């Protein structure tokens, strides 16, 4: 009888990741020897000053960029060497993105903006509408589904962006300075939504330079000069 217990794989495993821009005298090590594990269901913040490597890190975690060297295992699969098409597929199905600027299409309603990612996933229109409505209800915007972005406050627009990010039930929600354009009261509302989503077991990784925002998460990863320092 085999008594060995297999330990589950972390959701994210970065193995000696480097990202180098340029070459020769103008070579810049944006990331150096990054080793990191993030388990499924974690709620983390990545902090660091401008130029510390946190945005490069976010691009690699989000499969928007490839490392120069090293391996990136996402849900057990090494995504460092995948083709652009395969990476696009992973981004659409497994990763939700929330940015500082909301990136909503001004001519579309909140509902239509949230339906967009599902078009690429080949989901029928009736199902898209149903799932988009559910996502907007989850972020407290059921009364605003037919409003266009210019009829919504900054906080409401960010809620639409969060609904769009979660509509395909991603494994990971990546948020890059999600409260950077919001006032303190609206920041609290948005952070409350992230907390609620994390309680529903969505893994959330948040890049921020705001200490109070980072302290809302359960784990803070500090970057400096392209390295993890704590």
UniProtKB/TrEMBL annotation:
Q: Which Gene3D superfamilies does its entry note?
A: P-loop containing nucleotide triphosphate hydrolases
ABC transporter domain residues: 12-229
The highest taxon in the source lineage is Bacteria
Q: Which PROSITE patterns match?
A: ABC_TRANSPORTER_1 (PS00211), ABC_TRANSPORTER_2 (PS50893)
Q: Which GO terms describe its molecular function?
A: ATP binding; ATP hydrolysis activity; transmembrane transporter activity
Pfam families from the entry? ABC_tran
The UniProt entry's GO CC annotations, sorted and at most eight, read: membrane protein complex
- Family according to the record: Belongs to the ABC transporter superfamily.
| PANTHER family named among the record's database cross-references | ABC TRANSPORTER ATP-BINDING PROTEIN MG467-RELATED (PTHR42798:SF2), LIPOPROTEIN-RELEASING SYSTEM ATP-BINDING PROTEIN LOLD (PTHR42798)
Name the record gives this protein: Phosphonate-transporting ATPase
Q: Which organism is it from?
A: Cyanobacterium aponinum (strain PCC 10605)
């Amino acid at each position: 009888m085999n008594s060995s217990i297999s330990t589950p794989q972390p959701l994210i495993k970065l193995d000696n990741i480097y990202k180098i821009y340029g070459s020769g005298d103008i070579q810049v090590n944006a990331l150096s020897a990054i080793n990191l594990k993030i388990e499924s269901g974690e709620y983390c913040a990545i902090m660091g000053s401008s130029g510390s490597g946190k945005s490069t890190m976010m691009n690699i975690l989000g499969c928007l960029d490839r490392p120069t060297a090293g391996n990136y295992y996402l849900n057990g699969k090494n995504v460092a060497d995948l083709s652009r098409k395969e990476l696009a597929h992973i981004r659409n199905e497994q990763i939700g993105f929330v940015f500082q600027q909301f990136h909503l299409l001004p001519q579309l309603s909140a509902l239509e903006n949230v339906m967009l990612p599902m078009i690429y996933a080949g989901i029928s229109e009736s199902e898209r509408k149903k799932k988009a409505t559910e996502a907007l209800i989850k972020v407290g915007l059921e009364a605003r589904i037919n409003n266009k972005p210019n009829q919504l406050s900054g906080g409401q627009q960010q809620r639409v962006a969060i609904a769009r990010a979660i509509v395909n039930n991603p494994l990971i929600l990546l948020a890059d300075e999600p409260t950077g354009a919001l006032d303190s009261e609206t920041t609290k509302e948005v952070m409350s939504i992230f907390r609620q989503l994390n309680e529903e077991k969505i893994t959330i990784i948040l890049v921020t330079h705001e200490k109070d925002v980072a302290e809302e998460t359960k784990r803070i990863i500090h970057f400096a000069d392209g390295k993890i320092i704590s």
